[in-house]
Amino acid sequence: MKGVFVVALIAFPFLMAAKLASGSHDYQDALTKAVLFFEGQRSGFLPQDQRMSWRSNSGLSDGWTYNADLVGGYYDAGDNIKFGFPMAFTTTMLAWSVLEFGAIMPPNELRNAMLAIRWATDYLLKTVSQPNRIFVQVGDPRSDHDCWERPEDMDTARTVYAVDAPNAASDVAGETAAALAASSLVFWSTDPGYAETLLRNAISAFQFADNYRGAYSDNANVKYSACPYYCDFDGYQDELLWGAAWLRRATKDDNFLNYLQTNGKTLGADDNINEFGWDNKHAGLNVLVSKEVFEGNLYSLESFKASAESFMCTLIPESPSSHIEYTPGGLLFRPGGSNLQHATSISFLELVYANYLDHTSQSLNCGNVVVSAQTLRQHAKRQVDYILGDNPMGLSYMVGYSNYYPQRIHHRGSSLPSIKDHPQFIACKEGSMYYNSTDPNPNVLVGAIVGGPGEDDVYVDNRDDFRKSEPTTYINAPFIGVLAYFAANPNFS
């Protein structure tokens, strides 16, 4: 989120350094750090085994204005707000990462990834705990963004934003249903009682989403707090299909299959197929549903698979339908902020679809170009290696990975002295001296992936440039699965 202060531009001394040798990365180390990042984003009472030790408890009274317990969850980025829409998507992607690649994760990292999921799902269950209501946000973004303050010190308004029936919140409720359903599959073998709770609440959240259709950011009491940060820009219809698809996978219930078959066209399953992220689920939806076609010969869902393959073809430069932009250094690029969210989420979809192709010994045709599972994995690996340092700047965009990474990220807790080192209260405007400082952040947010470079491959280490220097949970979440694959296949080329 955007700050309010001014900082001098700091150029890296290793600008345009020679890039690392391809294949030199320690993907296991990167995986460990990417998971650890989520501990730095925790809100609430921190456990005794908290490894990001410069963080402490925060947001302990969240929800009191509604007589509700809304303690916990994650701060979405470098601010101190809990936005339900991106948090739910983050949770879905963490769960999907474990479902697709958990079997090849080292046991300790699988455990840590599951803990990261549970920190989110424990909170998401609270957001749907009251009938015909969903809590969509905690914290007033305007007062929060007017301060540069540690989460442990925050004294800004912890306003609670809720949507009550018959008002609509199909996007947030649909994504919450997806997150809880996907997570139920993660916990089914280790904690079936918890998994059942997740699934029951997923069904309830989906019913709320479907019964009262519309975008949550159209509600007057939410609009001016969710926007312009996490408005529903692309419509709520994709979240309805996304939620139904995850419930179909979790329950095997034909009612959700029928929902996809009946509503696919009317809810725009064929629209915007070249995008995937916290606001637009179309490409991910098509990949997810295509699994049913691969495994069950459900030809009624063939259009989803066709759309998934069309999306894959747009990513391959040699394909006649290619139209995704790349930087000169080879990074997938889309205009707007936090570009690396596209690189991590799309790489994840490529690896998942590659698995589906492999399991059925298939390839896909992009015009006269045959694209194999190997091709998709190679394409994903180029994005991964770029993020980890194979780029024109020789810079790792993951904090704490390699010797060269962003030192001045746009993140309050990282840039202010730790409460462990500076227990005195730092008030709202007192934080400006740290924001404006040209010194590196005192606390290393290990594993955080920043927004990334511009279309020219250039990144300036500037705390003020939040579009490039701010990490987010939804950049990291799909990267967990991506790194798990390459950590288990380190010699892939």
TrEMBL record:
Family per similarity comment: Belongs to the glycosyl hydrolase 9 (cellulase E) family.
Species in which this protein is naturally found: Arachis hypogaea
Keyword Signal recorded: yes
Gene3D superfamilies membership: 1.50.10.10
SUPFAM superfamilies: Six-hairpin glycosidases
Signal peptide as annotated in the record: 1-23
Reactions the enzyme catalyzes: Endohydrolysis of (1->4)-beta-D-glucosidic linkages in cellulose, lichenin and cereal beta-D-glucans
Residue spans crossing the bilayer: none
Domain spans labelled Glycoside hydrolase family: 27-483
Protein name, UniProt field: Endoglucanase
GO BP term, example: cellulose catabolic process
